[in-house]
Amino acid sequence: MFYVNGQVGTNHPLLKTAKNILIGSRSNLQSVGLIVLLVSKAASYNPREYTLDQHDSGVLYAQRALAEIVEMKRTGHLIHKTMANLQDKQKHGEKFKDLLCGNKIVLLTANNEIKRHYDWENENNLGKLGSNEFLGQGKDEWVLRTMLTSGSLLAKGCQAAMKLSNRGEELEREAYKLGGHLAMIWQLYLDVKDFFTHPNSYSLVGAPVTLAIWEYPTIYGHILEAKLEKKEVEFKPLYYAVMGTRCFEYLRQLLDEELVAVLQCCEKFPVEEARVALQKMAISVHSEAVQYMPDK
Fold it and tell me: Where in the chain are the domains?
């Protein structure tokens, strides 16, 4: 806590991430451990296969442990992404030492590729995900980036929970798909929120920018020019360029597709209470994301 307090006022990305982890959305979908537990409960298990000291409240203790591991890895990944670029020491002035301290915290606390249509649901998820063929392919690039960052972790966490409860390969695959689609709709919400609430520091590989560049490749010129001149990207002009495209029509469509996929995947799980909880989370995330976007 001493080190984190030292970061107050420095605008280190670590603070923004810490706030998101602690507060998040009304949906609580930011907790991947919770999702793994809910999917575990929604799938149920045969209590006759386990002793009384191996399960409680509809979840195996092994599944609880798995959920904790998945949560820890996700949090570590989020923190690791907040490394600040300190190449230009003079630009940061007096804040350089504090930002450097923040980077050290990131390194101590924690440890992107981009084909034809990317069919993540049916690929061998125990092998290498995707390929560079998806670079510049709009939705497919964004989907792969999401799977390589948060999607694969949640999808495989849900899949592993089914394996622990001996639910069979079919439900393992459905759990993998459910976890993946939950990660997709959550990342869409985060990307849209980031774009509209931080117009001077949003992600350059988030869904709005990625889809806008796919539709109008010339928009990439805003980023390329900054790279060639070794300057920081001017976010405001890029923001207005993105707003001038139809990317939000595509985002609405993608949000709708992911919501339908989550709702359909949930129907494969027998325990209604947990299943409905997952569906309500997805509906809430969808609603929150739409609220940030401009009217049609």
Answer: 113-292
Residues 44, 58 contacting (CB under 8 angstroms): yes
Model confidence pLDDT, tens digit, residues 45-65: 888 888 877 878 788 888 888
| CA proximity to 196, closest of 150, 234, 149, 243 | 243
What pLDDT digit, counting tens, does each position of 27-37 carry? Answer: 555 678 888 88
**Choices 1.20.120.80, 1.20.1560.10, 1.10.600.10, 1.25.40.20: CATH for 113-292:** 1.10.600.10
Closest Cα partner for 141 from 241, 37, 219, 215? 215
Question: In angstroms, rounded to a whole number, what is the distance separating the alpha carbons of residues 50 and 60?
Answer: 9
Which token pair is 259?
A: 């919501």
Closest CA to 184 of 242, 245, 254, 106: 254
Q: Which two tokens stand for residue 61?
A: 């203790």
Is residue 213 within 8 A of residue 219, CB to CB? The reply is: yes
**Model's pTM, two decimal places?**
0.73
* Residue found by looking up tokens 């690929």 in the block: 123
Look over the chain and give the mean of its residue pLDDT values, rounded to a whole number. 79
